Amino acid sequence: MKKIQYLFATIVLGASLTSCGDSFLTQYPEGGVLLEEQYQQLPDKLEGAILGIYSKLYEYGGHSTFGLRSIDMYGDIQSGDMAMKKSSYGWFEDFERGYFYSDARSYLWSFYYDIINLSNRGTRDLESNVNDIMNTMASADPNPSDTIKAFGYAYGQLLAIRGWAYAELLKYYCNPMDALDNLMDDEPAVPIYTETEVKNGALGAPLASVTEVYDRVYEDLTTAIDLLDYYGKLTPRSSKLEVNADVARIMLAYAMLNHLNKEGTTFAGGKNAFDIALEQAKAVIDGGEYPMLKRDDLFKTGFADVTAQNWIWGQDVTVETTTALGSFFGQVDIHSYSYAAAGDTKAIDSRLYEQIEATGWDARKDWFRSPDMKFAYCPDGKFFCPSTKNETALDKVDRNWLCDNVFMRIEVAYLIAAEAAFHNGDNTTAENYLKALCYERLAEGKTTADFDAWLASTSLENAIGYNWRVEMWGEGYGMQTLRRLTKKVKLGTNHISRANEEISAMGADMEKYQCQIPTSEARYNPYLATTELVKEE
Question: Helix H segments across 346-439?
């Protein structure tokens, strides 16, 4: 495959302390992962661990491996919602063909376990302070020491990001049939690491069950929410890149939504997964800190500015941290100088576009170019560099690559709440959350009655699935929507390899939506050497 061979001086790795190596499961992994000896030499190891985690979210490893937003693209392309119309350079083409090949499986594995490893290092360095942190919080001391405030806030962030990383691993390495009752909760999933030290000479850990991993996710995130609620009020958030209590709540809510509600499965307090998902999403919505993007602003932001009020979690891209050509906007925005502008376009699936058009009420159709335009179906009404929104000529488009990265926004809370309520049989609550979102997505001249009529003529499950696919297009929710909710999708005509195909996360195609554990891990983790989940690449 051809690859763009530009030389440029604007890619900077920022404050990154980690990079992808073969594995981090060893005590002394090979490759670019921060070695234990190096970590111990840092002047502030705790700060180093936290900065390393956050820099990992946007760390540049290549033109298809630039952190979380590249992973978002993997799932959205593989689910078919993001269509590749042309592939002159080869980046992301594997996912368009519907496969997680070995390099992607290894990248995903390393990405999340590097984060877990750094989280464990940070929590280890706080170990002697944990009792003071928890006791101070339990006593609701309004004026703890500056040290305990800082440590408590750090501990909450470390636990939240670790719980999130395990939940993310389940999205990719757990069988899609986990969404159905016929997969036992004791199905092997991924190893759990909560410490950095290797014990008894073993270089790894066995595969934990689905239940054990979800229990880890629940424990880490619920504890993190308590810590961040308390210490976050005493320690101002320095930027939206930092995980706060609301980010942790949505992390937990989405993890529980993906868990679904197997019969007899409950968590602390007897709550099922949907109870927890709705409770946490509702808490963030009711908090009122993040107002929804209003209809009047639907086409103004380009989803490119971290200061947007509806963004809960995101990265302020600067000249020091931009990954330039190899970035989300470089890959998707036709108004930025990179792959999309050069013709390697990613677009909304044409059949999904037609569904938006067919509703008659949905203004989000104009997030995408119409089929009779140049760059047909491309998302130039959703993702664009505001300073060059009206330019597509290569000599006029953006060459600064400073559009910010969105990781989470308030609209996802409404979709989580709607779906969780629906699965719990509370259709009225589900419809209310859906209406709150969609009443702000009405096309010019349309009224709430137009949406209500559409909703009345559409099954509630399909209406929720439709809104996941449209509202969150390009933000990394496509594959899980397919795995969890829609199950199968008929693709449109604008795919280079799967045009008009029906894809499914069930039956014979199920394995396409589950990553196999990389075989390289067996070299380091003896517990994985004989598992059937590790296949030759």
Answer: 350-359, 411-423, 427-438
